[in-house]
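pasting for the record
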Amino acid sequence: MVKINRRQFMGLTIVGGGLTVAANLLAKSTKSEVNKNKQLANLTKVYQSKNGLLEVDLEASYTAVNLSGKTAYLLTYNGQIPGPRLEVKPGDKVKIKLTNKLSQPTNLHYHGLHIPPTGKGDNVFLEINPQENFTYEFEIPPNHHVGTFWYHPHFHGYVAEQVFGGLGGLFIIRGELDEIPEIKTAQEEFLVLQDFALDDQGRLFSSNHMNIMAGREGNIITVNGEINPTFNLNQNGFLRLRILNASASRFYNLSLENHPFYLIAATQGAIASPQKMSELPITPGQRVEILVKGTPTPQTYRLLNLPYNRGGMGMMGGMRGGMMGGMMGGRQDLDTPTVLATIKFDGISQSGSLPTKLTSISSLPKPDKIRTFTLNHGMFPGMGMAFLINNQPYDHQRIDTQVKLNTVEEWELINTGVMDHPFHVHTNAFQVISRNGKTEPDRVWQDTVLVLQGETVKIRLSFQDFTGKTVYHCHIFDHEDLGMMGNLEIIS
């Protein structure tokens, strides 16, 4: 695939029924690639650690895959959408060899994992060039949070394109939550939510300038590479859904039609006790786990994506609802609910009560230092429109924030822009302290938090175990690639 520099990007125009200059370049550059990777199998493979070691080979390539009976040409790990599911336990060692068969540089980020951000760990500054490979090696700490995590590319400037093309997969850490009797006996299903912008031939559209500024969204939404798949709820009456938003920009507002569900885990694992809910927003990069309880009689439930408006940029926001919005599918979720999946229960529920306690969560102590981060966008000299943190676009050579190991900090996140921004911090998790001055009662562990337009959110972080350079950024990947990211250096 072709890399477009900033000057070319800023000058893109709509041509030929919505295709851009970049689309023509893309078609020329990827035709030979996909011919080398013809395959239509789309069964998600699971790799589990054995004797304390997970060893996996991953290959990133442009591949023909099957999306509910239709051929699509996407970016894949090992020819799969989503990529293989990886499962480990705290204390396990991990060895992942990534081979790059793309025509762009790439790498891997282990989203949510508390592992070294340098060397062969969660090093987002690595550059794995086309036809090269790299072997990641790290250990999951024995006290690591148990939960649903994921991996995806994180080479700056290409992140949105590669994730929007399909690259991403689940990384599961199993442990004490899985052993709670009511959860252990529940039927477990994994749901990876991805959207794609495909033409009639199943090939990726290349987004134009306005879609990229807003954060690109696709005209097809898939769950585990399928459109509206069906899950069967068995006789024990509890269904555990582990859900990942692996989309590049799309927010999902989840609801189970005419039926409640119970939140049991967020991005960094279990919450204190189950919370009954009727709808649940989930931003790019976030994960949730919910329990669905069967009814006394057979019933079919639809998992819906309810309308959600994450904001816009004046004319750009309007444009997304017009010609380009229709073609890319970007704002269809503003009007009507979308069916993501169907759950069928054909028996009589034999389920008992929900667990009353899932885990114990201790609040972080008062901070050693307080910082403020302003999220916005604007014109920047020599760059045109950019997304900014503290009025600066990303510079890979600049250290934006330097913190000390074994300290606690409180970060005030202020969104003065016109769009919602999910804010993600690598390496160390955090707790949300307040929103607009109102204290958050539940200090659950998070790694990605939504900061609504006009909102101020305070988070508290504890920097533990690892030194080195990593990043924080908006998890709308187009915004990250266009500047809304900062370098974080942890020193001893």
